[in-house]
Write a structure and sequence with these properties.
about 160 residues; mainly alpha; 5 helices; about 75% helix; elongated
Length: about 160
């Protein structure tokens, strides 16, 4: 399949796919980091953060699937190796074992800032390509991340 089958111009879709693949790589590293936070959280905030991290990694997993399926819908192939994810991602792995709860939250806030920045950039690219489907999808991801940034910043008193 190619983009013209869903009324998009092939030449305008390439930058969209490139950026969606980049976002996909970042979400994979983010997902694993939040999963590690979920597994390794300790202390008085355990119950609160354990649940919050689970909410975030569950949403990230759904996002990963939607991104890959959108890339396929556009007639291209999504990244599918850890090598690609690690190489392409601006978000970097961290060791969550023994990490203090507030440092975990701050690491997630930093990652959300990266995701939001990339999502804003994609919104411009998808608008230029006339790709409303990708635009709507990414806008939804961004809104979720913005809300959770506010909540997590409030948690660590950085509002």
């Amino acid at each position: 399949m190619n983009a013209k089958e869903i009324s998009l111009e092939e030449g305008k879709v390439k930058p969209v796919v490139d950026h969606l693949n980049d976002l996909l790589a970042n979400y994979h590293i983010y997902y694993q980091k939040v999963r590690g936070c979920h597994w390794n959280i300790k202390g008085q905030n355990f119950f609160t953060l354990h649940l919050k991290f689970e909410e975030l990694y569950t949403a990230a997993l759904t996002t990963i699937d939607e991104l890959a399926e959108r890339i396929l819908t556009l007639g291209k192939s999504p990244y599918s190796t850890f090598h690609d994810y690690i190489e392409k991602s601006a978000i970097k792995e961290i060791q969550t074992i023994g990490l203090k709860d507030t440092k975990m939250v701050k690491a997630v806030i930093e990652d959300l800032a990266v995701l939001i920045s990339k999502e804003r950039e994609i919104l411009d690219i998808t608008a230029e390509a006339g790709d409303d489907g990708s635009n709507d999808m990414v806008n939804r991801f961004m809104q979720f991340n913005e809300k959770n940034t506010w909540m997590l910043r409030s948690f660590v008193n950085e509002d």
